[in-house]
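Duplicate of #3305? Posting structure anyway:
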């Protein structure tokens, strides 16, 4: 069963055109493409920068895909960052576009080593140009948590490296004192992350209601008939029931069960239901909209903050990360992880993969799933989930339509290899817990956990003391902007200098992907 949202929703906008699924296979990419089949898109790609919405045109294998303007974070009452853009800011962004276009011409066609050397010789952006980029997508607002209760302050920002950016953010109230904050880090294209950003929050609300009904029932009534136990659930409530039935010894709590059911059901809709729907209709006009989110993939991290229960519950699928900033009694700041990266570097994940696929020595190869995918858990990524006969049936056509990751990995024998089932962490909030950072791995490529919390702690301390100089610590009014600036101003030796960010942001996409990833950050400040 495929949801009406998935069936009817156009790929983007009203044009019916799809954005490119291509991404540069540069340093740190979550997906390795098949080098024998990579599209030679460099000479075919035309790029146009439009203020008020970046318009990126691609031509791949005879198909044109358009990057539509969109807001960067999905949720109610999010303030716009473009309405108050000054003429100075717009002029700075136009200047950046011109410089990047010139830089792209210098870099295109060079061999990898020469391209890297040439990128280091590019001219620096000005400080005003850097500020314009960092401020273009920043947002700050307060969330009321009920009568007389402390507010939450939310700061968000995104800075792209891919064109278009493959990260998405979302937030949603679940109850008067309960709120969801999510980051979705796409790979092999944007389509899976985009679907998650708009659909996961409503499904989580539905899941919480369904779990409340399950909790109110007798335990005996939660056991389904034996004949039903292998049937795929048809909605998120059925998924929650199935999870309870499969692990009767686990004492599920409300929010962890709802989050797990939501992640599992959402991936089922994106990957399995969409496949069944297309196989039923064989309608080529719906192929990209239905199967594009399945071919692309996304990590997903959701934090549910409950100000009445004084707790945060984090569900993580992939390698985005949540941190808690704790102010110690002596004034120092401590970073507490609220999630663990799910990659081959995680011994628990490697053991799980080996256990689920015994006698397959290549299940983790070169530090990746079957040698290709970095995260061991993800949404989408049907090349690691679909049956082989479905891949043989549909991948050639999908590949011809521009989905370059519609290819079968080597040694593909016992799918599925990747799951979207999240790992859950619950934390009871105390008086010294000051903020939660939810961010994609592009931030943590640049800064350690301690550096993230320490830098943000210094920002809070300086602003609390009324310091308003133009130093790296205090120049930004948005906490997420401060953190992104700190990340991109830090070199590989941990030294901070504004020439680092001026150089990094001068490198145009797709070449920038070899130096930095998309960075998306949400910071939830507690007890405001």
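Output from current build:
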């Amino acid at each position: 069963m495929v949801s009406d949202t998935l069936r009817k929703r156009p790929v983007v906008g009203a044009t019916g055109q799809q954005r490119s699924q291509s991404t540069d296979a540069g340093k740190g990419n979550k997906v390795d493409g098949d080098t024998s089949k990579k599209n030679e898109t460099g000479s075919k790609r035309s790029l146009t920068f439009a203020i008020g919405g970046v318009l990126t045109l691609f031509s791949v294998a005879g198909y044109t895909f358009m990057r539509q303007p969109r807001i960067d974070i999905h949720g109610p009452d999010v303030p716009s960052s473009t309405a108050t853009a000054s003429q100075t800011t717009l002029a700075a962004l136009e200047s950046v576009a011109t410089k990047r276009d010139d830089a792209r011409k210098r870099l295109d066609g060079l061999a990898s080593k020469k391209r890297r050397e040439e990128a280091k010789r590019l001219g620096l952006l000005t400080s005003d140009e850097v500020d314009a980029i960092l401020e273009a997508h920043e947002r700050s607002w307060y969330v009321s948590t009920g009568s007389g209760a402390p507010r939450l302050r939310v700061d968000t920002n995104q800075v792209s490296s891919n064109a278009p950016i493959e990260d998405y953010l979302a937030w949603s109230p679940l109850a008067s004192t309960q709120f969801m904050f999510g980051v979705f880090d796409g790979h092999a294209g944007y389509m899976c992350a985009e679907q998650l950003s708009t659909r996961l929050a409503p499904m989580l609300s539905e899941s919480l209601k369904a779990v409340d009904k399950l909790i109110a029932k007798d335990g005996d009534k939660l056991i389904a008939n034996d004949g039903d136990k292998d049937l795929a659930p048809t909605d998120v409530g059925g998924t929650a029931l199935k999870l309870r039935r499969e692990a009767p010894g686990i004492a599920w709590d409300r929010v962890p069960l709802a989050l797990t059911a939501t992640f599992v059901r959402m991936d089922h809709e994106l990957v399995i239901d969409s496949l069944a729907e297309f196989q039923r209709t064989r309608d080529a006009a719906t192929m990209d909209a239905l199967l594009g989110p399945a071919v692309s993939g996304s990590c997903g991290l959701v934090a549910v903050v409950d100000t009445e229960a004084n707790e945060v519950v984090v569900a993580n699928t992939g390698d985005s990360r949540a941190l808690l900033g704790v102010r110690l009694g002596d004034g120092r700041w401590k970073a507490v992880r609220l999630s663990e990266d799910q990659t081959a570097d995680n011994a628990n994940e490697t053991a799980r993969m080996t256990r689920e696929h015994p006698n397959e020595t290549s299940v983790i190869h070169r530090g990746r799933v079957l040698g290709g995918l970095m995260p061991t858990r993800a949404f989408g990524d049907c090349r690691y989930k679909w049956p082989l006969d479905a891949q043989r049936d549909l991948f050639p056509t999908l590949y011809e339509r521009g989905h370059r990751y519609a290819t079968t990995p080597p040694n593909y024998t016992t799918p599925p290899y990747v799951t979207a089932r999240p790992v859950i962490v619950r934390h009871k909030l105390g008086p010294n817990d000051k903020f939660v950072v939810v961010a994609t791995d592009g931030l943590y490529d640049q800064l350690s956990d301690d550096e993230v919390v320490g830098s943000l702690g210094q920002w809070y301390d300086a602003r609390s003391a009324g310091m308003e100089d133009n130093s790296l610590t205090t120049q930004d009014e948005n906490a997420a902007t401060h953190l992104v600036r700190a990340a991109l101003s830090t070199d590989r030796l941990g030294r901070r200098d504004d020439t680092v960010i001026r150089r990094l942001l001068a490198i145009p996409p797709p070449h920038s992907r070899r130096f930095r990833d998309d960075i998306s950050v949400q910071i939830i400040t507690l007890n405001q």
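Confirmed duplicate; merging threads. The mean pLDDT is 83. Residues 11 and 451 are 39 Å apart (CA to CA).
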